[in-house]
Amino acid sequence: MNPKEFFQRIRILRILVFPMTAFGLLQLAANPLILSAIQKLPPNVATSAKNMVATVHPLATQAGIDALAEGGNAVDAAVAAGLMLGVVDGYNSGIGGGCFILIRTGDGKFVAIDGREMAPAAANRDIFLVDGQPDTSLSQLGALASGVPGALAAYAEAAAEHGRLPLANLIASAADVAENGFEISESYAERVSSVQNELVKYPGSRGVFFKPDGAPVGKGDLLRQTDLADTYRKIAEQGTDYFYRGEFAEKTAAWMKENGGIMTADDFDNYHTVSREPLITTYREYTIVGFPPPGSGGIHVAQILNILENFELRNESLDDVEYSTHVITEAMKLAFADRAYWLGDPEYADVPRGLIDKGYAKGLAARIDPVRAINVDSHGTPPLADSNLFERHTTHIATADDKGNWVAITSTVNTSFGSKVIVPGLGVVMNNQMDDFSIAPGTPNAFGLLGNDANSVQPGKRPLSSMSPTIVLLDGKPIMTVGAAGGPKIITQVVLAIVRHLDFGLDMNRAIGDRRFHQQWSPDKLYIENGFDGRMEVRLRSRGHNIENNSGTGVTQAIVFDPVTGLFTGVHDPRAEGSAAGQ
């Protein structure tokens, strides 16, 4: 479907989001074109004039819609969806992990809530060394792998300060689903199967994800999580104090001590969210609002777009696509080289604002050879790098409402099922976010990313993240929110969605659904998604790109707003289960 056809169908559907009077019903019954348009919209696309929710699971999307129906706004919808995802999508996110929340309020203000995990007070640079050598198994599995979770604190803050409904209302349906169970999908079963040898080592996880005969749960099984339901209900009754200063913290600390961990009840008590200054830049005539450090995504989405601003990008012919793909790839490479050196928690590391300087981007753009892939040996040095500084697996949720509230939440426990630990009796999957630190120079993390001293392990520090919740404005009005899951590919997914929609004019479904590519500097490879145009692959190889095929390109969610029709259009990535819906 081309953009013209897509928006024509959107305009036809506008009548459907108005109140259905008797006259409206007669119009609907008498107009087969409208019914045809409904049937032809892709199943991963939804429209509404009132509000929109897009997530990776239909139950989470419905939780968001239910919150809206109860009188909540887009913030309430996003928090309700996030809490439900902790039940039905627990291999990606949950209250045992962390999140970044980016909000555009109805009065036009931007809010960035940092719910990233914090390293325990006893953490140090040598914690993952064995006989002087880094051991990534310690940072990825078991008791040492987890940072203090921040997602719940961030959700609660967002709801209390910017929502309309109490947290107890937003968590209730998730608790019910945890207790009564939900049917495991094929993708959920595959995730369990892929890490079953690790999950089975931990009694709490074994009790949830394995049957009495020892087999892992599979597709079609009903997964009940009664301990998680109990934890959710205690949070509803006692608030976040239960989690950070009560029974949950005490039981988790006791388990950690018994199993060689260092996280204590004091670490939970000392956890706090941080209100960050949203990162606001421009791309051509658009305003881009992203998340600042310790999120690398906001900086490098902006940096890549700043570089691309120096090029004319088109999608009209094979030659145009080849050139655009080459240039975008080189911009990715340059940005990721800077990421490896400069990025870290701004309260512990000097992160230069010059990384998003237009002049610096112009200099990087000048390094790009329009014909051949360049060799990037190391990072660049942005202006005022020592003085102009920022202040000290994953899922994405997108929501918006007709009162002007827009929300982008990216939440994670890091790799599938995080540290693979569920503390017995609590039901919560604990993150393995400590692996997002640079545990030793030259040692890549689970996603192959390298880091420098700026992202070293320190007590209380927040690890670097690729999470990239983003809101796009035109003439001061929000027209798009987008974010993704997929480790470092989050950054490039968001860039591709923005460029394909704004530069190429693709409807958001195509902008997300078309085959993707990714370059992260180290290793120096251009990863292309299976199904990528074979002719294009040949052409890119001839330009000197070291190409590797890859099936795991991540998952994107987005909402766009058409000011002409007054319609929100929500799109969830066709690569994954999920849904978009509005009232």
How does this model look, in words?
With 583 residues, this protein is of the alpha+beta class. It is globular and about 60 Å long. The strands form five sheets. The protein has a seven-stranded antiparallel beta sheet with strand order 1-20-19-15-14-11-10. It has a seven-stranded antiparallel beta sheet with strand order 9-4-3-13-12-2-21, covered by helices on one side. It has a three-stranded mixed beta sheet with strand order 16-17-18. It is built from 21 helices and 21 strands. Mean pLDDT is 89; it is low at 1-38.
Low-confidence stretches at least 5 residues in length (pLDDT < 50)? 1-38
Name the beta content range. Answer: 15-25%
Strand order of the main beta sheet, please?
A: 1-20-19-15-14-11-10
Number of strands: 21
Layout of helices and strands, plus pairs?
Layout: H1 3-13, H2 22-30, H3 32-40, E1 45-48, E2 51-55, H4 58-69, H5 74-88, E3 98-104, E4 110-115, E5 129-130, E6 133-134, H6 136-140, H7 151-162, H8 167-180, E7 182-183, H9 186-194, H10 196-199, H11 203-209, E8 222-223, H12 226-238, H13 241-245, H14 247-258, H15 265-269, E9 274-276, E10 279-283, E11 286-290, H16 296-308, H17 318-342, H18 358-367, E12 394-401, E13 406-412, E14 470-474, E15 477-485, H19 489-502, H20 508-513, E16 517-518, E17 526-529, H21 534-542, E18 547-550, E19 555-562, E20 567-572, E21 579-581
Parallel strand pairs: 17-18
Antiparallel strand pairs: 1-20, 2-12, 2-21, 3-4, 3-13, 4-9, 5-6, 7-8, 10-11, 11-14, 12-13, 14-15, 15-19, 16-17, 19-20
Helix pairs in contact: 1-3, 4-5, 5-7, 5-8, 8-12, 16-17, 16-18, 16-19
